[in-house]
Queue: 3 jobs
Job 1
Amino acid sequence: MRRLAAAAVLLMLTACAPGGCSGTGAPMAPAEPDTAAPPASPPGPPAPEPVTWPHEPAGALHPGSGSGATDPTLWAGGMRFPLESGPAYANSQVYGYGGWQAPGPGGQCDPRNYAYPWRDNFCETRSWSNSKCPAGRGHQGQDIRPATCEKKVHWAVAAEAGRISSIGSYTLTLLGESGRIYRYLHLDMAEVNALFPTQASRAVTRGQRIGRVSDDFGGNATTIHLHFEIKAPVTDGETAAVIFVPTYTSLVDSYSRLLNAAA
C-alpha cells in the first residue's frame, strides 16, 4: 500500500505543466503573454512659431532715394546683431521723418520712424565711393534706430570677438577675428573712450557692450541712431581688397536670431 501511495504522489508531480500545478494538482494553463502597450506619454507643448517681423527685401530703398544693392550674400553670417536688445528699426535717417528729405512734417522722434517694416538704405544716394552700389557711389552702411528716441540709453555690442582698432571723433572700428571690419558711428564717444582707455583694454568678446547709441557726429549732431558698416575681404578676379559690403541681409539674419532668443 505504501508503495502505491508513493507512486500516486510521484505521478501527480510529474504531470504538472512547466508553469506549475493548480491547487487540485492539475497542470496550470500557461500564462498569456503581456501584449498590452505601455501607457502613452502625454503630448508635449507644440514648438513655438518663429518670431518674425515685417521687412522689405534687400535693395528696396525708400522711393526716390537711389538704387539699392540686391546682392543676397550673407556677408557676415553668424554675427551678433549690433544692438544689445530689440526692438530696433532699420530705416533711412535722411528720408525718414525729421530728415532733410522727409516725406512730410514730423521730427526724428515721430512714431512712424519707430515702426516696421524695415527698409534697406545701403547705397542710398550719397557722394561716397561704394563699388557695391549700382551707381558706384552711395551710403556705405545701414542706419538703425534703437527701441526709443533717447540718446545714451541703448547699448551697441560687438558683432563678433576681436579688437577695437581705432576710436575717432564719431566712429568706433572693430576688427573681427574673421577678418571682417565693423564700423559703428554716432555712439556716445565720451563713454566709448572711458570704456576703452588703453590698447590693452580693446580686446572684446562677441556681444560685449561697446557704447551707447547717441547723435555724435564730430562736434555736430545727427539723428539718434546707429550707422553700422561691414567691410569684408572680396576678390574680384585676381584683385583682393577689403571693401564695404551690403549690410542688410546680415542684419536681417542676426535680428531674427535675436528675436528668437538665439543671438
Job 2
Amino acid sequence: MDTSNMKGYMGKFLKGCGCLSIGFFVLLIIIGIFADDDDNKKALEELAQKTEQVQKSMEKENHQDTVVVNQPTEGDPYQELDDLIGLGSVKQEVRSLANFVELQKQREAQGLKTAKVSYHLVFYGSPGTGKTTVARIVGRIYKDLGVLKKGHTVETDRGGLVAKYMGQTALKTDTVIQQALDGVLFIDEAYSLVPEGGGGQDYGQEAISTLLKRMEDYRDRLVVIIAGYKDEMQRFIDSNPGLQSRFNRYIDFPDYTGEELTDIFKMYMKKNQYTLAPDAEDFLEEQFEYAVAHKDRNFGNARFARNVFEKSIQQQANRLEGMKNLSMSQLTELTVEDLQGGFAARTNIGQ
C-alpha cells in the first residue's frame, strides 16, 4: 500500500468534525488491513469524497445561523423615517414614542417624577413591510435621545439563538446579546422560539429564559425589538408572563398598496439610473395593483417590488443582447416587454 497516499487521505479526514473524522479514520485502518492495494485506494477515494460531502453539508447547515450586525449610519434618523415610502401609521407611532421619551428625559433633568418607559417593541406585519429598516432607525433615534450609547442593530432569528444540543442555547443566545449591548437586538420571526403545538424537545424556551434575564440584567444597555406575523406574535407574547410584562408597545406594519409598490419600484429605478418607456407607466401600476389584489399571506411587499425590478433589468439585458453602441436611452429605458419579464418571473412568487 502507498503510505504517502494514506497520509494524504488521513489529512483530509482530520480537518473536519472530530467525531466524524475519527469514525472514518477507524474505518480506513480496517480497510488498510484487509483490502488489496487497488481496492483499498478505490475505497479510500470514495470515503474521502463522502466525508467531504458530509463536512460541506455540516458547514452549510452551520452557516444558516443568521446574526447580522449593522452599525448606525450617519444622517438624521427622523428624516430617514419620514422619507420611507408609505408606513404612515408606523411613522406616527415611532415619532410619538420619541416625543414621549424626550419629554421624560427633560422632566428627569429638572428633578421631576418620570413615567416608567419600556423601550422594547413588538413589530407586527407581513414580510417586506419595513420592520428591519425601521428597527435600525429606532436604534439611531434611541442613540440620539441618549437611551443607547451606540445605537447599532444586531439582527437575528431563531437560528442565531437556538442551538441543537442541550445546554448550548443559553451560551449561544448570550453571545448574541453581548454583541447587541448598547444597541438594539432585533429578532425576526420571534414566534418560532415557541413552536405551535409545543410538542417534542425544543430549546426555544431556553433562549427566551436567557433573553428575559439579560433584559433585566442590562435594562439600561439593551433594547429588544421582536417581529413577525400578527397572530403568531400575539401567541408568542401570551406564551410567557415575562414576555407580557416586558413587551407592551406594539406597532402594526400594514401591507403596501399597489401605488406604494409602484413608488418603491421607481425608487430602485432612480437609484440605479433607469427610466420607463412612455407606455410602460400604466402597465407597471396595473400589474402592482393586480398583485396586491391577488396576494396571499406570504406576499413579499417591498421585496416583491425589488424582485420585479431586478428581473426587469435582467429582461432588458436579454432584450438588448448582442447589440453594440447602445444609446443612453436604450441603456436606461425599461419597456413593457421588460416589465412583463419582471412580473412573470416565478421567483417573485411568495417573496
Job 3
Amino acid sequence: MAANASAGFVSTLATNKDRFRKALISDQVYELLRQAVVDGDLAPGDRVVESEIARRLGVSQAPVREAVKQLAREGLLMHVPRRGHFVVEISEQDAEYARQVREPLERLAAQLAAQHITKDQLAELDALVERMRKAVDGKDMGAFRDADIEFHTLVSQAAGNPFLERMWEVIEPSLRTLRAISDPLFAGDWSAMADEHGRLVGLLRDGNAEGAACAFADHAAGRGPVPDARAAKKPREEATARD
C-alpha cells in the first residue's frame, strides 16, 4: 500500500480493526483487501505493504502475508522482485483484445473436442467442475480460478490438434494475467458459473460439435447464460458520463 494511499482505504482499515481478533484472520484480511480492490479503494498500481496493513489492523504480518499471496494467485496483485506487491493494472482494451483471440480458439477447441474427447478426459472435466463447486462452497476463488483454467486447457488438449494445444499453451499465461479467462472480479453467481461448466461438459459428452462450439465461444466472450453485474452497470455509467 503506497504511502499516499486513499483516505478511504485507511479509514476502512481503522474501522475494521476489531474484527481481526478472531480465528481465520487471514480469511478476513483477504476479504477486506479483495473488496478494497473491487471497490477501487486500492487502485491499479497501488503498492500493498503487508507490515503497514498488519500494524493498522493490529494483527501479525503472517495472516496479511497469506491474504496477499492468495490475491496474487487470483491475479489481483502482482509481485515485483525487491519492490513488493502491487494492484494489477489492466486496461479494458487489452482485456478485450485478449478475449477476441480467445473466442475463436475456444470455438475450434470445443468443436474438435466434441468429436475426439475420451471417457477419461470427460471424467477429468467432471472432476474439475466438482472442484469449482467445492471452491465456491469454501469461498476460495483462487482454487476456482485454478480449476477453471485447467478445464479450458484440458479441452484444448482433448481437441486432438497438437498445434492448437501449443497455441493455447502460448497464450494462456497472457489470458490469465489479463483476466480474459476466469476473471476474479466476476460479479455474478459463482455457483451458477460452476454449473455452466457442467453444461459445457454435457455438450462435449453428447458429441454436439456445433452446439459445443457456439457455447464455448459465448462463454469465452462473456455472452454466456450467467450474467455479470458489471455488464449491466457499465451502460448506466457510460450514460451518466454522457449526461
